[in-house]
Amino acid sequence: MKSKFKYILSSCVLALSMTACDINRLPETSISDATFWRSETDLIAANNYLYTFIPGFNNEDVWSDDAIGLTSNSISDGSRLAPSTDGNYTTPYQLIRAANNIVEKAPRAAATTSQAVIDRYLGEARFFRAWGYFSLVQKYGDVPLILKTLDDSSPELTEAASPREKIFDQIYQDLDFAASKLPTMSALGTANYGRISNTAALAFKARVALFEGTRSKFHSYGDYKKHLTLAAAAAKAVIDSRQHSLYANYFNLFQYEGEGFQNKENIIVKQYGVSLTDRVLTHTYYRGTIENGNKNPTKSLVDSYLMSDGLPITKSPLYKAPVKSTDVFTNRDDRLNQTVMKAGDPYIFTKKVFDVAVLVFQKTGFCFRKFSNIDDWNNQASSIDRPILRYAEVLLTYAEAKYELDEAISDADLDLAINPLRTRGKIAKLSNAFVTANGLNMREELRRERRVELAQEGHRYWDLIRWKAAEIELPKPILGNYFFKSEFGTTTTVNLTPDNYILVTAANFRRFDPAKDYLWPLPLNEISLNPNLKQNPNW
């Protein structure tokens, strides 16, 4: 069921799109600042603007080895240059400015509003400020840390970048405040589903701390144990809250059936329109990105799914070389069937099923299945929500943080955090004895579990960055499915490897320079405006 908050938020988006040409303007600026900030209603109106910054559907997976689009991208082919301007840099600062404005002015409502209510909306604002800063430091490293609203004469406009450690400390402070002041998911209820809860703040803190902990460990800087300890503690706090649980049906997680308060797995979501008759905010992710081939799964991703006995395809006696395309899915982790289409799955039009002979769009011979919905395809619009942070990620974060702290993990923690995911995927459980008996590597199996559980959800590129594995994995060729000639046909010309797999992109068209590509280039205009802002190395 669609929430009341979704309707309010959609109306806010519509109002902003009709009245605000300059995104720097806050929603309250059409009203005198002296007459605003007087009630809880004013605080809600100001905070609703922050939710418009929650990212929608995108094709960022093509930066990684999980997916490829119809055309090359400058991140994958190594042709990227330092841009003059970049929304990846400016948009988070617009969010930060809006959040700073609320932090400064929300206390003005004290005459009519209790401190607890004010603190709640301050908690939301500080959550989003943390969100903005993590987005920046994840890409650019050191950036200016601005904690107040600025005007044209503010000296902070030419302030040097703050060290990333200082920025992460501020992110943790903001998220701790948010976690202590925000309501639980249960307290939010159906009417306010979609607003940030206290467990959302904790779950996001776990994501942030895992990123920095593992990045500092594998890139050899800072105190990685500090961050990993925080990651494990924040994830465990979410687990112990009992506010969340895994949704029973993995495929329906990404359909209308998985929406709303009844799904306890979704912690942060990007909400879309109330229905197709309330098209304030919709998307065409399935028709415009998946079905059109702008994000195709790779052989590398498909091969990473285990057999049902819990072993990789290179070790399992269950694996047989496929003789037809559907054999790829036989005796595999059930999440493969729910994430990647096979011949016979519903595809487009009312009754049409997926036909593997679609290489003109599905260049790898594979097609993603999450969020596929024939009704949405026919309507050319969808209001299926995008899950941004799921409870499954919290479990994966807990397990990885615990392992990387001591390079060991107990069977009890595996049963707590990993095996519920494997049970949903209908594969054998993971244990230390299983790893030893089968010559596996625990770190690789934990990373594999993360890759398949979160496939198509925009995590893989950043995982390779923090593990310092991008320089190894990203320059590899992009391969597709085995070329089943009787099914794929000969209408579309394809390149093949000597062992008959579709060669989509050769290795010489894939580049990653470890001397510079682990950080993104700062926009040249920002450096021109601030002489104390220094470009990242080798850009």
From TrEMBL:
Residues 81-210 form the SusD-like N-terminal domain. Residues 293-539 form the RagB/SusD domain. Its main location: membrane. Residues 1-22 form the signal peptide. The keyword Membrane applies. Keywords: Cell outer membrane, Membrane, Signal. SUPFAM superfamilies: TPR-like. It is found in: Cell outer membrane. The keyword Signal applies. Belongs to the SusD family. This is RagB/SusD domain-containing protein. It comes from Emticicia oligotrophica (strain DSM 17448 / CIP 109782 / MTCC 6937 / GPTSA100-15).
